[in-house]
Design a protein that fits this description.
about 25% helix; 10 helices; 2 domains; Immunoglobulin-like; about 350 residues; alpha/beta; Rossmann fold
Length: about 350
């Protein structure tokens, strides 16, 4: 079964056109790198009228295709209302170990692009650019596009190609585990396959008024609550979803002069019976003395949120010119849903 054909036959996607974009990726040959592929993607989407002829575009990306998609959006700066959601299947947002091995034997620049995330690596740079759009009201991609993620549960040739931490990095919706390997996770054989069911559910919600309303609530500077109408796949009956947003103070971070501080924290909070987390965003507030800051949710489950932070410290390069250390308060905001 060819997945785009399966999607085209599913009535849940009847209001959508299906567009497939492909690119060359070969182990031992020189090919275009991710930035070049992102430019190429833009050329095709414009040439074929995908951007101009459609009010909204949802991306479904596999593996490196997710990095190409992010790079394309960072380059083109499409309004987030144009891109309601992206579903990343096995995308190595924090790099892939297999890529580190392959770059030793391959001329393919794509493998170098996907090496494990360290300061100065391509995936680290792309993540910074993606997070930086949060400071721009015209984009704000990490918090204004529903970003779904799925990760593989089976090995391919003895390896988990993209581990859970990398595959779920930068997403703002609870991730999904797919009981397949890295290749077969995007090869569902029927409409009841878990990858297809997960995509269908994400599409129906993200493209609905309920999805737009709850995303707006998540982005509100104040805590909000309300109800939205929703028809679930399970019951096929209209229902009401009660939502509320909650702010959590995750503590303070201190940074010394001209230092880069990286790390991870895990935040626990009281779970409410019958409620589920739909989305999570994080931010730094009360920033003092810092030139740049970024924070991204890496995983969450029930009453636990794990997030990564990366703080580039004070402006200026000379330690002698450095005043007091920088500081910031970390805020986490999550959106809860409960069926009425």
């Amino acid at each position: 079964m060819y997945w785009p054909l399966l999607v085209g036959r599913d009535n849940n996607f009847k209001d959508a056109n299906i567009y497939v974009h492909q690119y060359e990726s070969r182990l031992l040959e020189s090919v275009q790198d991710i930035e070049e592929l992102a430019i190429r993607l833009g050329d095709y989407l414009k040439s074929d009228g995908v951007i101009s002829d459609h009010d909204q575009i949802g991306f479904v990306a596999h593996s490196m295709g997710g990095l190409v998609t992010r790079a394309f959006l960072v380059q083109e700066r499409l309004p987030p209302t144009k891109v309601p959601f992206i579903y990343f299947f096995g995308t190595p947002s924090a790099g892939a170990n297999a890529a580190s091995i392959a770059k030793v034997v391959s001329k393919n620049a794509q493998f170098r692009n996907m090496s494990a995330s360290v300061k100065g690596s391509y995936v680290d740079d792309l993540a910074r650019k993606w997070l930086a759009t949060s400071q721009d009201q015209a984009t704000g991609y990490p918090r204004r596009i529903w970003s779904y993620c799925a990760y593989e549960r089976k090995e391919f040739l003895g390896f988990i190609i993209v581990d859970q931490a990398s595959a779920t990095h930068l997403c703002n919706v609870p991730p999904r585990a797919i009981l397949s390997d890295h290749i077969d996770m995007v090869k569902p054989d029927s409409a009841s396959s878990e990858a297809h069911v997960s995509l269908r559910s994400a599409y129906r919600f993200a493209m609905s008024p309920a999805g737009a309303q709850t995303l707006a609530a998540l982005n509100s500077p104040t805590e909000m609550s309300g109800t939205v109408s929703w028809t679930s796949l399970a019951s096929a009956k209209p229902s009401k979803l009660r939502y509320n947003t909650v702010f959590v103070d995750a503590g303070s971070l201190l940074v010394d002069c001209n230092e880069i501080r990286q790390g991870e924290r895990t935040l626990f909070f009281d779970a409410v019976k019958g409620e589920q987390i739909l989305g999570v965003i994080t931010s730094f507030e009360n920033i003092k003395g810092m030139a740049h800051s970024s924070v991204s949710v890496s995983a969450w489950d029930k009453n636990k949120i794990a997030y990564k932070y990366d703080l580039a410290a004070l402006k200026g390069n000379q330690v002698l010119n450095c005043p007091n250390a920088g500081a910031a308060t970390v805020k986490v905001k999550y959106l809860l849903l409960k069926e009425e």
